[in-house]
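Slide 14.
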Amino acid sequence: METLLYDYEVDAIWCDIGGPSPFDEIAAGWYNWAKQSGRQVNNNNRCGGNYSDFNTPEYFTLNSYQVRKWESNSGLDPHSYGYNSGTALDKYMKGVDVIKQLVDIVSKGGNYLLDVGPTATGQIIPEMTTPLLQAGQWLSHSGAAIYSTRYWSVGPADTTYNLRFTTTPDAFYVIALSRPEGGVLRTRMRIPILEGDEVRLLGGSGKMLEWTREGEEVVVQVGEDEVGLVEYAWAFKVEYKS
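Slide 15: predicted structure.
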């Protein structure tokens, strides 16, 4: 491990499985060496010691937002890291699965580490490339709801309408993981929206959407045509104007 730390000057140590290791004995020296070198280093919570920078749940996500840094990790294969010829092709994650998993994780303050396993000849099979391309296409128009955002501390989800939330200093994002029924977005959460704020569907036409309050719900009139412009997940930007 010291060879990795010093000879290869790694910035991150990502250990697997856990269990006894010498990391506690060498961690302080590595941290001090990095500080003197003007470098930032980190390690996950599986190195077998008492010191770590982030947690790494595997093949599952957390139920609520976390103040401590965390990173959910999984493979496109539902059971294996790397390529497994025994996995049926229809069992791989689909693009919609990757997108929904990403949204859920980010809304709770986490990172998403997704494994892509090449075959023995170095090829990435279509069942792996296709969901990645679909996720990339979605991020190309809805990435503002993901990149440089933070979790919403009031609550990461509206389970009634299958919504997730993220926030930035100048906007709030509502991400529907299910198609808004009847072209209408609803939430019972007390989201930070005031009269004069503007709502738009990322990846949509760009038009401003009408919103009202109906009892305890915020209701956004999206329209079926507008909803149909986006696939997989629908990210709405609430731009603060008031």
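Speaker note: The mean pLDDT is 95.
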